[in-house]
Amino acid sequence: MAPRLALAIPHGRSVAVWMRNLRVWRRYAVPSLIGNFGEPLLYLLGLGYGLGRFVSGMADMPYLAYLASGVLCATAMNTASYEGLYAAYTRMTRQDTYGAMLATPLQVADVVAGEVAWCATKALISGVTLFVVAGALGAIPLAGLPLAALPVVLLMGLTFGAMAVLVTTLAPSYDFFLYYFTAFITPMFLFSGVFYPVDTLPGWLQAAVVALPLFHGVELVRPLFSGELPDPLAVHLAVPAIYLIGAFQLATVCLRRRLLV
Amino acid sequence: MHGRGLTKHYGGVPVVDGVDLELRAGECFGLLGPNGAGKSTLIRLILGLAPRDDGELEVLGRSVPDAIRAIRARCGVVPQQDNLDIDLTAAANLRVYARYFGLGGPAVEARIDRLLAFFQLADRRGAEIEALSGGMKRRLILARALINDPELLVLDEPTTGLDPQARRLVWQQLRRLRREGRTLLLTTHYMSEAARLCDRLAVMDGGRLLALGTPEELLRWYVEPYVVEVPLDGEDFQPLSQAPGCRLRVTGDTAYLYTDDPGPLVDRVRTAGFDPPYWRPANLEDVFLGLTGYELRED
């Protein structure tokens, strides 16, 4: 039979997949939340206070605020990636959660959509946690539009969640994810303007960074912290959205090939 | 369910090879076959869980895969491998599974209570999955497959790995489901299971259906009424091949003599110097071995 080439569009029922993950998360919510506080706190304290002593400010912002706006996006990226890689891989293989789902009216696109939405939800949870931590440390300028950064966190969570699920559908084992982190996530974390402005990088590296989604997340959040509108807004929204849509479509095709044989 | 010419290849090898199959509403249909016969693949094709390479298929009057969502909403599936959600309790497994069908609310809660009671799991509703025995897990999977009140229930080896007590409980529940008017399609290795549960059976091997009929028909068509089993202990079975009025099959250390009249044959075997033979009515296992061969299958 001819393979279907039409774009995959998830059904509203994919909410059931998201709800399944939420229900499981709620059982272990307290330790999970404590873990969420830990990492951003370390970044802000370790780098913000330590490095902040030597750096008076960056791009006309106090360094702690500069750092907080970048770490907010990086945290969303990391949280969504871990959920879409390790946790989703366990559900796909060892627990055969997807096998059970696919015996119901749920289709592959619904499972992928539910999983990606869940990755984004976890990214949002850690984003909010970071807000609380950073706010307590005085790293969030109240004069700006910091709350407008939360939709950006959600966008980062969706984008990196979709990319992580795509990698999961291709992964032969957990070890595979290390390559993804080393080749992709970690360089993005270091070079996307989380810690220092991208224009200090050599031109070729800047070009690479601009083609990747994290940079655009940082470029969206940072102006909002100082009360300005991101510019150009459309580009910074479009690049992550393209990654999101592309990764979602590919992940659906790959998961179908992997499970429905 | 109505399938014609169903075909599925893996790496150029046909695993399901032009199968025609029709299920009647309200019957229990058994699919028998050795490991690797293609039973599970055929089931996956019927459920739209694997794309077929050829053939036409309608399930519950709708075509697969076009109407797959609507079909699945009316199907219950018991997979071969336990895939309960180990992150959830027994009752939560049913509740979350109901959501996959878009079902929720007090009606589903009442149904969960009824199903847990029906499968004698009422006192385990809050139990973690890992704390359940193999039989309990299997019963919970059956309960899960019924959460949407399905018209067609598809069971891939529903009792594999269960002890005889648990198996009998599952049989009893499956018979009750059939009496409620549901259509059942099951695969099994156990001939006694097939004989007890199924209205009609198909024996499958090499991706094809070798025989199809009621258990009585299969016995009548494919095997003599009686079998004389002769333990061989390494002796030459050639003298047995001369015996009149019977058909000889040898596997491992046993010779099987299929016959209409076991009396004279038993005497003859005894006087020929073999160990005392044992005779019994032929059963589905004899039909199965006769159709699929006596050699050991490697998976």
List the helices and strands of chain A in order: HHEEHHHHHHHH
- From the helix content, strand content and strand pairing of chain A, which structural class follows? mainly alpha
Widest sheet, order of strands of chain B: 6-7-8-3-9-10
Q: Count of helical segments of chain B?
A: 11
Fraction in helix of chain A: over 70%
Overall pLDDT metric of chain A: 93
The biggest beta sheet of chain A is recorded as: 2 strands, antiparallel
The count of β-strands of chain B is 14
Instruction: Identify the most extensive interface between protein chains.
Output: A-B, 24 and 30 residues
What is the count of DSSP helices of chain A, taking H or I runs of 4+ residues? 10
Q: Helical proportion of chain B?
A: 25-40%
Task: Look at the structure and give the mean pLDDT of chain B.
Answer: 92
Please explain how this structure is put together:
The complex is a heterodimer of chains A (261) and B (299). Chain A is an all-alpha fold and 261 residues long. Chain A has one domain (11-260). Chain A is built from 10 helices and 2 strands. Chain A has helices at 15-27, 29-52, 63-92, 97-102, 108-136, 149-170, 176-191, 203-210, 213-225, 233-259; strands at 57-58, 61-62. Chain A has a two-stranded antiparallel sheet. In chain A, a hairpin with a 2-residue loop joins strand 1 and strand 2 (61-62). In chain A, helix 2 (29-52) packs antiparallel against helix 3 (63-92) and helix 6 runs parallel beside helix 10. The longest helix of chain A is centred in the N-terminal third of the chain and has 30 residues, at 63-92. In chain B, helix 3 (90-100) crosses helix 4. The two termini of chain B are 29 Å apart. Chain B is of the alpha/beta class. Helices cover 35% and strands 27% of the residues of chain B. In chain B, the strands form 3 sheets. Chain B has a 6-stranded mixed β-sheet, sandwiched between helices. Chain B has helices at 39-46, 68-73, 90-100, 106-118, 134-145, 164-179, 191-197, 215-222, 238-241, 262-271, 284-292; strands spanning 2-10, 13-22, 28-32, 54-59, 62-63, 75-78, 152-156, 183-188, 200-205, 208-213, 226-231, 246-251, 254-259, 278-281. The chains are: A mainly alpha (261), B alpha/beta (299). The A-B interface holds A 1, 11, 13, 16-17, 19-20, 23-24, 27, 95-97, 99-107, 260-261 and B 10, 47, 49-53, 68-70, 72-73, 75, 77, 79, 81, 83-88, 92, 96-97, 99-102, 148.
